[in-house]
Write a structure and sequence with these properties.
The protein is α/β, with parallel strands linked by helices. About 50% of the residues lie in helices and about 15% in strands. The longest helix has 15 residues.
C-alpha cells in the first residue's frame, strides 16, 4: 500500500483482515435526539469496541500484516491512551511483545487497560509530543517496530472500515461529522465516503484549545501549537501528522473547532438521549453537529462517537456543571 494512495480497496482488504477479531459496531438513531436536532442523526458507536474506541480497527489491521521478523522485534507506540490500547490489544492477539509510552498524567483508565491487554507501559514526558519523541528514539535504539499514531497507511485503512459499515447501512447520509486528533479516522471517512457517495460532506472537528491540525489544514502551512489545553486527550495534538494532513487537505470538506464547554454539553446530551457515555473526543462530532444543527434541518447526517473512555472523575465533574 502506497503511503500517499490509500483507496477503498485497501479498506475492503482491511475489513477482511479484522473480521475474525472485531464485530461491526452499531449505528443507531434516536427519535428524541432527532427531535432535539431537527434532523435524522445516526450515531456510529465506536465506543462499543472492546477497547472502547475506534482505533483498535487500525491496530488489528496493521499487526495482522507484520512479518515474523517484525513480530519478533516487538512493537512500540506513543499514545495518550486509545492508540496505545489498540496496539496492546492487537499485539496480544498475534503474540507480539508490545511497549506503550504514555505521557505522565495519562488517563488512568486507559493506562490500566493498556497494561491489562498485556503491554508494558512506560510513562514519559508532560505531553504527547515529548512522549512521541522519546518513543521514536527508543525504537531506533532498540530496534522495535514503531507504530505511529498517524503516519501508518494500514491504520488509516483499518479505521476506515467503520465508515464502510456506516455507509452500507445508511447510504443516503448527507454529512458525517468526525473528530480529529491524529486524523486517521477522518481520513478513513474521507476515503470511503467520497468513493461510495461522492456528494457526501465529511466534516472534521477539533478542540479550539488544540487546533494545530485545523490551522495547518486551513492555512496550507505546517502549524504547531505550544499547548493543547483540553480535557479531551484524544484531541490534544500539538502538531499534525504528515500523512493524514495531506489526505485531509485533499479530501476534507469542512473543519470545525469546538470549545471544551461544548464538549461537556455534548457528553451530557449524548448520555441523556442515547444512554451512552462518550469521552471528550467521542463527543466532539456531536458537539459540532449540535452547533450547526440549523443547516441540517430535515436532512440525514451521522456523528462518530469515536470512544467512550471517560474517567469517572471527569464524568462526575461534567454532570455537576
Amino acid at each position: 500500500m502506497s503511503s500517499d494512495s490509500i483507496t477503498l480497496s485497501d479498506v475492503l482488504m482491511a475489513r477482511k483482515r479484522i473480521a475474525p477479531y472485531l464485530s461491526p459496531t452499531a449505528a443507531h438513531h434516536y427519535p428524541s435526539l432527532d427531535r432535539l436536532m431537527g434532523c435524522e442523526v445516526w450515531v456510529k458507536h465506536e465506543n462499543h469496541q472492546p477497547t472502547g474506541a475506534f482505533k483498535v480497527r487500525g491496530g488489528v489491521n496493521l499487526c495482522s500484516t507484520l512479518s515474523p521478523e517484525e513480530r519478533a522485534r516487538g512493537v512500540i507506540a506513543a499514545s495518550t491512551g486509545n492508540h496505545g490500547q489498540s496496539i496492546a490489544f492487537a499485539a496480544k492477539l498475534f503474540g507480539i511483545p508490545a511497549k506503550i509510552v504514555v505521557p505522565e498524567g495519562a488517563n488512568p483508565d486507559k493506562a490500566r487497560a493498556i497494561e491489562n491487554f498485556g503491554a508494558e507501559i512506560i510513562y514519559h514526558g508532560k505531553d504527547y509530543e515529548a512522549c512521541k519523541q522519546y518513543t521514536e528514539n527508543l525504537a531506533e535504539q532498540k530496534g522495535y517496530r514503531y507504530v505511529s499514531a498517524g503516519n501508518e497507511p494500514l491504520l488509516i485503512a483499518g479505521v476506515g472500515t467503520y465508515a464502510l459499515e456506516l455507509l452500507e447501512t445508511q447510504p443516503e447520509l448527507e454529512a458525517i461529522y468526525v473528530p480529529i486528533g491524529g486524523g486517521s479516522g477522518s481520513c478513513g471517512c474521507c476515503i470511503v465516503g467520497h468513493a461510495v457517495r461522492p456528494g457526501l460532506k465529511v466534516i472534521g472537528v477539533q478542540s479550539a484549545h488544540a487546533p494545530a491540525v485545523y490551522r495547518s489544514w486551513k492555512s496550507g502551512e505546517w502549524v504547531t501549537t505550544p499547548t493543547a489545553d483540553t480535557f479531551a486527550e484524544g484531541l490534544a495534538t500539538l502538531s499534525p501528522f504528515e500523512l493524514p494532513l495531506g489526505i485531509l487537505r485533499r479530501e476534507l470538506d469542512d473543519f470545525v473547532l469546538v470549545e471544551d464547554d461544548e464538549l461537556r454539553q455534548a457528553i451530557r446530551l449524548l448520555l441523556t438521549y442515547t444512554h451512552n457515555i462518550a469521552e471528550g473526543a467521542g463527543a466532539a462530532a456531536f458537539a459540532a453537529a449540535y452547533r450547526e444543527r440549523e443547516k441540517w434541518q430535515g436532512k440525514k447526517i451521522a456523528v462518530i462517537m469515536s470512544g467512550g473512555n471517560l474517567t469517572l472523575e471527569h464524568l462526575r465533574d461534567i454532570l455537576r456543571d
